[in-house]
């Protein structure tokens, strides 16, 4: 299966490089507004999902980590899963089937990513998801502008923003191709999002 995914992983890495380039371009002009630094882990407590191509990519590289690091991360992942389940139950009770209210509430939640080690550093930083790569700059999500609350970007002012909506469409396309190659071309599982904890605790083959 890994041989079948090689070119899809390469295509994903091109998207990740695009995200990195966008970050650097904004940083050149608005460096004072970006507060990202080593051991700043604000983005590592945000709740977000991964498309299948990202989950598979993360799972693949997680499997190549030192066993000690994997064991520590898997222990943290168990705790993270429990927190996510509790969060979902609590928000469902509060908002029912109101999807928009649920999304707003999730954006305010804080759950520690299992890849964040005891030194407040990402165990898979070089292979981190695209959402993590652009967290410190303005982004467009669901047609709305968002920016890290710690940053210096002022509300109402025009800034260059990374189009996460467009990126999500491309990630969906790669995920759809991934499922097609796994013999699930008729399924729309490509639209489902997975947590980081689910991604690293599940072998690549079982994600498909």
List the helices and strands and how they pair.
Blueprint: H1 2-30, H2 52-62, H3 67-95, H4 99-108, H5 130-133, E1 139-141, E2 144-146, E3 162-163, H6 164-181, H7 196-201, H8 204-207
Parallel strand pairs: 1-3
Antiparallel strand pairs: 1-2
Helix pairs in contact: 1-6, 3-4
- Helical stretch tally: 8
Tell me, briefly, the overall form.
Answer: globular
Structural class: mainly alpha
Reported for the largest beta sheet, the result is: 3 strands, mixed
Order of helices and strands: HHHHHEEEHHH
- Topology, number of strands: 3
Spatial extent as radius of gyration: 17 Å
Q: What's the average pLDDT?
A: 92
**What percentage of amino acids are in beta strands?**
under 5%
Oligomer: single chain
Strand order of the largest sheet: 2-1-3
Count of individual domains: 1
Please give the alpha-carbon distance between the first and last residues. 10 Å
Low-pLDDT regions: none
Helical amount among residues, as a percent range? Answer: 40-55%
Overview of the structural elements:
With 208 residues, the chain is mainly alpha-helical. It has one domain. Helices cover 53% and strands 4% of the residues. The protein has eight helices and three strands; from the N terminus they run αααααβββααα. The protein has a three-stranded mixed sheet with strand order 2-1-3. Helix 1 (2-30) packs antiparallel against helix 6 and helix 3 (67-95) crosses helix 4. It is globular and about 45 Å long. The model has no long low-confidence stretch (mean pLDDT 92).
């Amino acid at each position: 299966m890994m041989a079948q995914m090689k070119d899809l992983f390469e295509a994903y890495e091109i998207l990740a490089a695009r995200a990195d380039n966008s970050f650097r371009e904004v940083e050149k002009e608005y460096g004072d507004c970006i507060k990202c630094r080593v051991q700043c882990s604000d983005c590592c407590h945000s709740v977000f999902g991964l498309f299948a191509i990202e989950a598979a990519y993360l799972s693949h590289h997680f499997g190549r980590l030192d066993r000690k690091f994997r064991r520590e991360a898997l222990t943290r992942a168990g705790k993270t899963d429990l927190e996510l389940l509790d969060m979902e139950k609590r928000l469902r009770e509060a908002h029912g089937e109101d999807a928009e209210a649920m999304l707003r509430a999730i954006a305010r939640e804080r759950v520690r990513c299992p890849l964040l080690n005891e030194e407040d550093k990402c165990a898979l930083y070089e292979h981190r998801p695209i959402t993590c790569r652009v967290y410190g700059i303005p982004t467009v999500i669901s047609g709305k502008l968002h920016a890290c609350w710690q940053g210096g970007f002022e509300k109402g002012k025009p800034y260059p923003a990374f189009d996460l909506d467009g990126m999500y469409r491309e990630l969906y396309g790669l995920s759809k191709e991934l499922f097609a190659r796994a013999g699930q071309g008729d399924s729309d599982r490509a639209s489902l999002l997975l947590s980081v904890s689910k991604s690293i605790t599940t072998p690549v083959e079982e994600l498909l």
